[in-house]
């Protein structure tokens, strides 16, 4: 983001994010790639916007999600949509692949970072092209990598053990969904910038599918919550 200073009249770069989104979790499964986010955007430390879609369909076979400054997310969606729209206008049957979008976003992020005006985002690009699954990560510095699973935000600290224990790249779509639900259940309990309403999207040979938001099930009736606070009671 860029704003004009009323005091100096000079153009200044944003030095810190303002409205931010939390963790993104993405997994490959036996028929495609699934991505999950929650629907919360925080204004500073306030949980202000609780019904925000942070997953965008870029093309027929590509979806995009990110953690970080939401206005930067909106700008990236516009930039990626321009590429898809331009390809449609050429009408030559050639369309960018999900990997093409990932490479473009890596170059864009690196360019912005070199101008000391970075996109405050950890970006996730997921797609399915020519029978192959694709999952890529681009960070604030333009670093690019591909993996079978990706976590951003606090999910990188709290959820990797869950993924390692319960997920594999040949699992079914329903199994992958359940792993992501378990991850967001943990995040809701341990991350103050997380929300218990999540949204899942997946891309397979038939194209991209963005599901309606859902609420994860949480458990609050532990004996330790009902009785006096004593570590000996927290055994459930």
TrEMBL record:
Localization annotation: Cytoplasm; Nucleus
Primary site of residence: cytoplasm
Key word Protein biosynthesis present: no
UniProt GO cellular component terms: cytoplasm; nucleus; proteasome core complex
Similarity field: Belongs to the peptidase T1B family.
PANTHER family the record matches: METALLOPROTEASE TLDD (PTHR32194), PROTEASOME SUBUNIT BETA (PTHR32194:SF6)
Protein name: Proteasome subunit beta
Source organism (scientific name): Paramecium octaurelia
Upper taxonomic lineage: Eukaryota, Sar, Alveolata, Ciliophora, Intramacronucleata
